[in-house]
Amino acid sequence: MQQFLDTTLGGLVLGAVYAAFALALCLIWRSTRIVNFAQAAMAMVTTYIALSLINVDVPYWVAFLAAIAAGFVLGAVIERVIIRPVEGKAELNAVILTLGLFMVLHGLTALVFGVQHRGFPAPVSTNAMTVGDTSIGITPFGILTIVVVAVVMAGLVVLFRFTDLGLRMRASAFNGEVSRLLGVRVGRMLTLGWALAAAVGAVAGMLIAGGDLVNPAFMDPFVIYGFIAAVLGGLDSPIGSVIGGLILGLSLSYVTGYVGEHLAPLVALGILMLVLLVRPSGLFAAAAARRV
Amino acid sequence: MKLTERLRSLTRPVRSVPLARHLLVGLIAFLVVAAIIGSSSQYLQTRYAEMAFFAIAAGGLTVLTGLSGQLSLGHGALMAVGAYAATLVLERTGGETLADVFVALLVAIAVCAVVGVIVGVPAARLHGPYIAGATLTLAVAVPRLANQWEFLGGEQGLQVPVPRAAELPVWIQDLVWFFTAAEIDQYSFLAYLGWFLLILAFVALANLSRSRIGRRWRAVRDDDVSAELAGIHLGRARVVAFTVSAMCAGLAGGLMAMNVRLTAPGAFTITLSLTLLAAVVLGGLGSLTGALIGAGVLAFLPHFATDLGESAGLSATQAAEVTPVVYGLVLMLVILLAPAGIVGSLRMFLARSSLGQTKEKTT
Amino acid sequence: MFAVEDLSAAYGPVKALNGVSFTAERGQVTAVLGANGAGKTTLLRTVSGLVRSTKGSVKLDGKDITRTATEKLTSYGLSHVPEGRGVIAELTVVENLRLGGLHRATGSEPMSIERVFELFPRLGERREATAHMLSGGERQMLVIGRALMARPTVLLLDEPSLGLAPRVVAQIFDLLRGLVQTEELTVVLVEQNARSALSIADHGVVLNLGKVVASAPAAELAADEQLRHAYLGF
Amino acid sequence: MRNTARRAVQVVCVLTTASLLAACGAGKERPSEDGTAVGVTDTTIKIGAHFPLTGPAAPGYSEIPSGHQALYEYVNDNGGVHGREIEMVVKDDAYNPTNTSAVTNDMILQDEIFAMVAGLGTPTHRAVVQRLNDDGIPDLFVSSGSLQWGDDPATSPMTFGWQPDYEIEGKIIGQYVKENMPDAKVGLFLQDDDFGEDGEKGARQFLDSQIVDVQKYTPGGSTDFSPQMSSFKSKGVDLVLGFNTPSYTALSQIAAQGVGFKSKWFYSNVGADPALVGGLLASMTKGKIPAEQGVKLMDGMMTTEYIPGVDAPDDEWVKLWQKVWDEYSKKGSEKLTNYRIYGMSQAYTFVQALQANGKDLTRESIVETIEKEGASFEGPGLAPFRFSEDSHMGISGASVVELKNGAAEPLTPVLVTDIGDAPIEEDDSAASDAPPASGLPE
Fold first, then answer.
1. Shared-domain flag, residues D239 and D336
2. Gene3D superfamilies this protein is in (chain C) (predicted)?
3. What is residue D426's three-state secondary structure?
């Protein structure tokens, strides 16, 4: 029972991070119909930027903000310079392009920062919390993770639902040409979409790195898990991404805890195929089924 | 002029049948290759052997992606399946003789054919980013199965027995001696074997792509809706393409196992699948020559780039990172600047200039 | 006044517009007519910069707006209304309208969404519906209403009757006629349905293969039997 | 015909390009072998080794080769061994056996090394043992305590171990726990390969009935060990025996804190360096404890020790290492660490073997020399080597220690034993060896 509770709590924390990551993928998919396979590498880069700052004694939260800002800039630059030429072209091109970007960012980070594993601090304790005498399987950092992801989500909901900027971004994503006719600077909105997504990815990177070792490959599992979480909820649906992330986090946590860590990717693959073949638009997509 | 015409008429039967023509080219190519391998150092021979299995895998992938328009990032996983299948067979047979080697490779191909169908059926229903994500997951998930069952050797993998030169049939030893004036050893054997199978595989693939099946694949790639209207069973065409491609990956995996002499999950990383894609994209999607060029780059670039990096003052570990950066840049630049790849761009250039020539002639 | 002079455009080697000129007066409806493929839609797309012009100019009250970025045209008071499929299907009715009001003609007063609902009461009833749930007629009302939110002086309408029942077409054209008077609009109405279009238009321009073949008061065109048979199909 | 010709031309073009490319960097001529072995000239000996310079096993282990290199430079500057200078090629395998195979291939065929010396890692080195023995290349002093380097010289005649194997380490730990903590509920935390397996084998000789849970990890896999620690916690484990590499010591500590699992810890020597693990732990915690104070986070953990380390600066051997390191470390700013001491100690044994071999050096002769004389090599090891024609096992014992403020406090004298049922005996004789005045083996 104790183990089940611990595993569940661990899964929720993990799921929250997957959710943030899936959310980032979803933002980009909505704005440019591209799955950004370089998302994990971008988040890794921003996390390294934060780590370099922390290592010269910059306070954690300043470094955290710096990572977000770096992500924002990185996302914008990548959209403008690299992605813009393939927007609206054959989807295979964008896939290959982002995979290439993944490899380049990976390699460059290794060249610049080295490949050794480095410790990454957490802003709050990573020791289990106790209720009375028994300790429970969640740490203050785990709670912080869930809170941060919830805040990010709430922020995005407010942005998209209640602000003119969000309306412009959504309109650009859904129908660029019509939006232009209505005076929306669609190009800017797409850039902003990538920038926001990369900033959200940067947050996810910081949350994963905290209290763990980082190296240039530390985000690699997220290339697939983030994608699966996003597809699970329907690539188009931010709320779906979040729920997809939580479902995936819990599933993988149970698999790791009760069966074996090595089977986690296989279970993830099973979940992905099931969703793609049975409910291609994801579990929570509101729109009519799209071809996958 | 007369003589050449007579020669042409004599060779017509060979030229008019694609298979015969491809086989002839294959034979010539193998003789050239054998001469090169025979006169190379052991170190180069291992590089050639590596190039051969990369080329087989890339050839299969290029058929899949270039001709039938499906993307697979899971070919590393399929190579793993082939490698484990071949290794398990070699473990049981001892792997001492040439027959053992071929049996192992045939089993690798057969197992991968089955896996190809299993993966191909659902994959045929996916497109674009979805198939990319699904096959990428496959690439991560399959090698981890080695940790599940003890007979697969876990993380540290399985040792692969390799035939010793002395166990090879005498006629092969004599033949090699006759042509290259060098004794065959393990390294040259694997290089000969690899290139022999590579040429065989490419002849088969070239033939296939000229055949009705190949035309169907292209039809499916270019416009699936009209292909379907023309009576082509989309799913079936895609599954066949995936299976053929998987068989190539299986053969490549089997050869890789023999070359590396160890089959372990750590060999089959996401990076392997991505570098295969890089080879195919670099060469030009759908071109076998391109796949060969791409494979050459895969086999030689890492060492070249690492040396370059080290001489530029990077530490050994950093220099090793130059290679993936180059692969990644290749992927990006090809997509942004020359989406047809090396061979495709060259072909377009040639086509344009020959078009120019014919125009000049006619006017 | 809205004027097009010698406007040309091409898709690759194919000339889609070949030296088109006409003017549209304030408070009037100018119908641009022609068969399918005559270049009507290309004309609008070229005016709003979605297709690059190769020659000629577009003038709005004497100001040259030929190469102006598409996004800026609403601020000059020019609204291009794409045909009914141009609703943003994933947004609600209200959101579509809000979007229309974000980039208004410079110096104009914002228009309230309620005013649109007064003009199109049907939309008011469905304000929270997502646009993909609307009927064809409702969508057409939505794109027109959305364009009005930007307080345009010139309204370019692309095939508003496409795929609609005649009764609905009549209803929409009536509304349009009314709007021209109350809002002092310049309307350029691109239509394949020449008969209906001419019934509300003041002036007509007939295109064929990218060229103007006739430009005359609407009544005159409607009376020209030969022209009607040759180009307008009624 | 055009098609055919073009295709043939294409193939030839590709091959030519490939060979040219290869010629740029790779195609070196084999050196002529007049009387000496590959990799040996009158003035040089070229050796090679694979190390994890990158990846999860790199922290700590990547420092070992710098120890080797410093000692070789010291030796070279003092006239070399029988007039020959030692040159060491180090290649990164990232602790991935497939890479080990590839880089070993390169070292054999491209760098043409005389011998592999100190190649690191159980799963990694296992991938190339057969290859090295097939090709008759000496495979000396493997940096790993797996049994397979030494327990079967008939199959692997060229391979020699160096450090105490994991089985005797497991036995020594097992006996200590059984005698001193008979009521402890033991959980095993194992690397999922021969490393973990050998250690478990030794420990189970004494602790079979005390072990209540076994958890494993895959190197290079997930770095979150909460599930494993939750399992220990739910099974009531109060003593964990870890056979794991250093990063995983830090990660298991973090995960244990994360799930609120409290226990006594006993790590294999391999994964218990206080400076390194403490530093990693310090960098991963809230508010970043300065790395120097990180060693305190390891207080109370137990491990074994078989060579003197940086915590004993007055030891004669450590004084020698310090002197060599101060003089020959490439990056002057880096400190002497236990891993560098490990490398220098190993290098010292290799130089000893070369000295003992005499001027006529062949691949066979060095093997013969170690088999005949290795057991009497006096070096920093607290216990003697077991080298003979029947055994290629390395150092024969260790003492159990407890970490306190980064220093190892002995809990037992040096305990010496061998694999299998061999009894465990106290034997401090080798611990008192001191280095020769020159610092060079004689």
1. no
2. P-loop containing nucleotide triphosphate hydrolases
3. strand
